[in-house]
Amino acid sequence: YWDWTDERTAKEGLPDLLRPRAVVLKLPNGGSRTLSTNPLATYHFEDPRPNGFQNIDNDARDPWNPWAPIDKAYFKDWTSSYRWPTSTVNPKEEYYRQDMYVPSNDDYGWKSLKTAVGLLFSFPSDADKDEYPFIWDEFSNTRFQSKGTKAARKMKDYKAGNLEQPHNKVHLDLGGLGHMANNDYAGFDPIFYLH
After folding, report:
1. For residue 23, what are the β-bridge partners?
2. What is the DSSP string of 41-93?
3. How far apart are CA 10 and CA 104, in angstroms?
4. Nearest to 65, CA basis, from 168, 187, 154, 191
5. DSSP code of 26?
6. How many CA atoms lie within 13 A of 115 on its CB side?
7. Where in the numbering of this chain does the Tyrosinase copper-binding domain appear (predicted)?
8. Side-chain half-sphere CA neighbours of 33 within 13 A
């Protein structure tokens, strides 16, 4: 389990165990064993890739991911999952870029993530029960279905936060140009199952 909002995330960013391609395990008998493929760092694809895999040009128009590189993601060609890869068929992972965004205290860093998660626990107890569906609509997704109805009813804005925004932020912070930042490919990155 990895707590996105833990103070250690602010200081250290992504836990070290989730990065190296190889990992040394300490065994109960005092010995150790090296795994040449860290199952928490990457997933290796069979050849050929599953049908439907394609390379994607990132046009950098995503307002939630302003630091994403304007490059191509080679999902069809990459032989394993990557986090913050360079835009080449044989990429290097640029974890230093991830380290700039995850622990930072600016509008896109850990501080904003912690605030967004904290807002999830601020459901307005003073709201009329008639307003609960509208508050739920804001809480449950990033595209409010009831926005027009809410405005017509002259309801106040509760700013209770929404569940999807911090979740989406984790995808983007962890992925860069890689698998975790793309909904169609995120499930191939082992970190998907820890977020």
Report:
1. 35
2. T--BPPSSPPTT---EE--S--TT-TTS-SSEE-TTT-SB--SSB-SSSS--B
3. 7
4. 168
5. E
6. 9
7. 1-195
8. 6
CA–CA separation, 176 and 173 (whole Å): 6
Q: How far apart are CA 168 and CA 191, in angstroms?
A: 14
The DSSP call for residue 156 is P
Residue 151 backbone phi and psi in degrees, to 5: -65, -40
Per-residue tokens: 34? 């090296």
| pLDDT 10s digits, 48-83 | 888 899 998 876 655 545 555 568 899 999 999 999
Q: What is the mean pLDDT of the chain?
A: 84
Q: Which residue type does 125 have?
A: S
Poorest-confidence range of 9-18, 32-41, 127-136, 154-163?
154-163
Task: Count how many residues are written for the chain.
Answer: 195
- Phi and psi at 156, nearest 5°, equal -80, 160
- Kindly report the pTM of this predicted structure: 0.81
Residue matched to tokens 């128009």? 61
